[in-house]
Amino acid sequence: MQIAMDGPAGAGKSTIAKCVAKKLKITYLDTGAMYRAITKGVIDRGICFDDQDAIAEYAHQAVIAFKGDQIFLDGQDVTRAIRTPEVSAHTSDVASVPEVRKVLVQAQQQIAEGTDVIMDGRDIGSRVLPNADYKFYLDAAVSERAKRRYDELKAKKALDGKTLADIEADIEKRDYLDSHREVDPLVCCEDAHRIDTTAMTIDQVCDCLIEIIKKPKDEEAL
Ligand code: CDP
User: Fold this and answer.
1) Ligand 1 atom nearest to 174, measured from its CA
2) Is 146 close to ligand 1, i.e. is its CB under 6 Å away?
C-alpha cells in the first residue's frame, strides 16, 4: 500500500503520518527531512543559495540515510540540526533547484518500491507517488499552523529568539515559495482527500484517515 500526504508547513503531516504508519504497521518516510538535510549541507559548505550549479553538484554527492527516527547526512547525525529556523528558512530555496528534486524524488521512489509506505511532503501525490492508493492533503489556518510550530520549537528550546509573529511570517513565505516554484509545486491533487485540521486533535485526524483507508473502495464512491 502506498499513501501520499501533502500540505503546507505545520499542517500536522509528519505527526499524522507517523501515527498512521504505526497503526497500519507500514514504513514512514519524511521527504521534507531530506530537503532539509541537503539544505544543512549547503549551509555547512558555505554554498551560496543563488548558486544552483553548486547546490546541484552537492545534492548528487550527498549521502542521506535514515535509522529509525534519526537522519544522517554524510555519516553525521543531523536529526536536530535540520529543524532550526535557519534551515527552515532556506529549505524552499534549495528545494526549488530542479536537480535537487530530481535526485531526491528518485531516491524516494526507490525507497517506496515494493514497500508499504506513507510519505509526507509537497509533491508526493503529484510527482513521487502519482499512483498512490490513497492521497491526503492536510491543511489548517496559518495562525494555527504557526502556533503549532511555535509550541514545537519552544518545547525543543529551538526558537532562536523568534516570536510567534516571526514564525507565522516565515511559514507564509515558505508556503508561497513552495506553491509557486516551477518544478513540482505544492498542489492539492484532484484525487486527494482534503482535510482541514484547524479544529481537530491529532487523534481525530489520524482516526479520520484510518477510516478512509479501511473503508472498502466501492463505498468510497458513494
Ligand atoms: O515540516 P514542515 O511542513 O515545516 O516542512 P517539511 O515537510 O520538513 O519540508 C521543508 C521544506 O522542504 C518545504 O517547505 C519544501 O520547500 C521542501 N519540500 C519539498 O519541496 N518537497 C517535499 N516533498 C518535501 C519538502
Assistant:
1) 14
2) no
